From TrEMBL:
Organism for this UniProt entry: Solea senegalensis (Senegalese sole)
Biological processes annotated in GO: SRP-dependent cotranslational protein targeting to membrane
Stated name of the protein: Signal recognition particle 14 kDa protein
Subcellular location: Cytoplasm
Gene Ontology cellular component list: cytosol; signal recognition particle, endoplasmic reticulum targeting
């Protein structure tokens, strides 16, 4: 997995969306990130670790290609605006809902 800066993550995510436009899928996950790189032990002494800054880990994968980035709380608004524009631009391949099911429900109630 490759940890990228925010801007380079968005450009790589754009490339992944373009690559999967005809077939395939991109999986995106979001997770709270506290800065730890080692797992927390289950038993024994438990340390109370409080991160100084709340962060978010975003991962995207397509097949064997995996990318990730860490967003700090200061950069959330800027990243969210760029991320939402990117999603709007590349979510045009979704299937539309059937309108037949809605028309059947309205006829049954009348």
């Amino acid at each position: 997995m490759v940890l990228l800066e925010n801007d380079s993550f968005l450009t790589e995510l754009t490339r992944l969306f373009q690559k999967c436009r005809t077939s395939g899928s991109v999986v995106i996950t979001l997770k709270k990130y506290d800065g730890r790189t080692k797992p927390v032990p289950r038993k024994g002494h438990s340390e109370s670790f409080e991160p100084a800054d709340n962060k978010c880990l975003i991962r995207a994968s397509e097949g064997k290609k995996k990318i990730s980035t860490v967003i700090s709380s200061k950069e959330v608004i800027k990243f969210q605006m760029a991320y939402s524009n990117l999603l709007r631009a590349h979510m045009d391949g979704l299937k539309k809902k059937d309108k037949k099911s809605k028309s059947k429900k309205t006829k049954a109630t009348q």
